[in-house]
Amino acid sequence: MLVVKRRCQPVNLAILTALNKRMELHHDEKQYLLNLEKGFEGETQFDRLVEQLTCEGLVLNDLLLTINGTTCQIDSLIVTANTLYLYEIKNFEGNFQYKSNQLYTFSGKEINNPLTQLNRTATLMRQLIKQLGTDLELEAAVLFINPSFMLYEAAVDKPYIFPAQLQAHFVKMNRDSLPLSKKHQFLADKLIKLHHKEGVFPHQLPSYAYDNLKKGLTCIHCGSFDLSLTQRKCRCKSCGHVAPIETAFCAQVEECRLLFPELRITKILMHDWCGGALPIRKIAPLLSTNYEKCGDKRGRYYK
Ligand SMILES: [Zn+2]
Hints:
Layout: E1 2-5, H1 11-22, H2 27-51, E2 58-67, E3 70-79, E4 83-90, E5 95-99, E6 102-105, E7 110-111, H3 114-131, E8 137-144, E9 150-152, E10 160-161, H4 166-176, H5 182-194, E11 227-229, E12 233-236, E13 242-244, H6 245-259, H7 267-273, H8 280-290, E14 293-294, E15 301-302
Parallel strand pairs: 1-2, 4-8, 5-9, 8-10
Antiparallel strand pairs: 2-3, 3-4, 5-6, 6-7, 11-12, 12-13, 14-15
The chain binds zinc ion.
């Protein structure tokens, strides 16, 4: 398998993770963060399995496409010689029940049936591949990745792939595979070109302001502010992780840029953002080594 489009951490997940360290999130925002973390974890787990497949195929992860005016998101798409596999990946955990086309937890909470989303995406995708002039069959499935997931009374004719069926599904894909040709590469290139890079949904993010966020240097492993610094290293008192100060500092710069893309990165700003944990004389060389210098000496900032 050749991964032609890798999965990146979703921007809203990165922003919420950074905010969660530096401000108090509401209960529903925390829940949203947990769901994003869980979803991303499930998807990366799936990616690891796909990378082990030996058949010829092109893998495109995390596509955001607008087809005939409607935008859809695809967790994973695998182009093989005869079939285009489209997956909606779910990392649900525990016992669920299938009742009149809906999914319910055992406590009776209704969960959106991922099939609704899948059917909509599959319909759009069929229109697109037709427009692109390919004759590949599209096979779409909701794939439950978590081994603890159990769905009682699921209709057998639904395109679900359960954890216990995953292995057999991949074995079949390996067995049925044929060599790829230029037309497959052409299709993959075309889809990558159509992908929207800016996939953020700002309305799902809490509002935040620079002044209201907690400042400080944080552990790159667990996010704790409780660090002890030596000349070159910082050690986290919460999780014990040790990192070079340079690495920890650059992570703070990236976080600041992510949350406030409009701010210019200066040594004064970074001194403040790190809560004064590092002296300015130490910050200046770290910025010069790792970022591009812009502006003159008086208005120096870094990109
Ligand atoms: Zn830590």
